[in-house]
Amino acid sequence: MDIILRSAGAYVFLLIVLRITTHRVSRTMTPLDMGIMFLFGGLSSQAVLAGDQSITAALVAVSTIALLHIFVSTAKTRWPGLGRIAEGTPTIVYANGQWDERRLRQMRIYKGDVLAEMRQRGISHLNQVRYAIVETHGGISIMAAET
């Protein structure tokens, strides 16, 4: 039972920490972001298993985290507020020719991230963009300006 409680606690804690610390998706992760993710996982596993290196302990811990993830994913559809807490809401960082510097800082997103996403979509000038939106999964959506 102790492993179940530690697993659940680690899941909730990591959900909060990741929600606060990162807004990037895996394709835009920097080496620093990836290093942090690996460290979180390694450090968390030590705390969850607390020295119990049996296969049973590992299976119980993984099962607990998987069930909690399924529960949260399902609960988000029933209680949208939980989804906003767990994943956030889309955030407009560029609109009609103006950068929202405050939101860029809050999201820890650089203009260069937005510009890179534009280039990947074949957009070469900011005047071709109406909105740039940081989605809940960390991706950046670019809405083209009407021509």
Structure, explained:
With 147 residues, this protein is of the alpha+beta class. The protein folds into two domains: 2-87; 91-144, CRO Repressor, CATH 3.30.240.20. The protein is 60% helix and 12% strand. The protein is built from six helices and four strands, in the order ααααββααββ. The chain has helices at 2-21, 31-49, 55-78, 80-87, 101-107, 111-120, and strands at residues 91-95, 98-99, 129-134, 140-144. The longest helix is centred in the middle third of the chain and has 24 residues, at 55-78. The protein is elongated and about 60 Å long.
**N-C termini distance:** 61 Å
Return Rg in Å: 19 Å
Shape category? elongated
| Total number of domains | 2
Number of helices: 6
Helix percent reads 55-70%
User: How many DSSP-defined strands?
Assistant: 4
Biggest sheet features: 4 strands, antiparallel
* Helix-strand pattern: HHHHEEHHEE
Q: Runs with pLDDT <50, length 5+?
A: none
Helix/strand/pairing category: alpha+beta
Beta-strand portion reads: 5-15%
| Mean model confidence by pLDDT | 82
Instruction: List the strand order in the largest sheet.
Output: 2-1-3-4
List the helices and strands and how they pair.
Blueprint: H1 2-21, H2 31-49, H3 55-78, H4 80-87, E1 91-95, E2 98-99, H5 101-107, H6 111-120, E3 129-134, E4 140-144
Outline:
With 147 residues, the chain is α+β, with helices and mostly antiparallel strands. Helix content is 60%, strand content 12%. It has a four-stranded antiparallel β-sheet with strand order 2-1-3-4.
List keywords for this structure.
147 residues, 12% strand, alpha+beta, 6 helices, 4-stranded antiparallel sheet, 2 domains, CRO Repressor, single chain
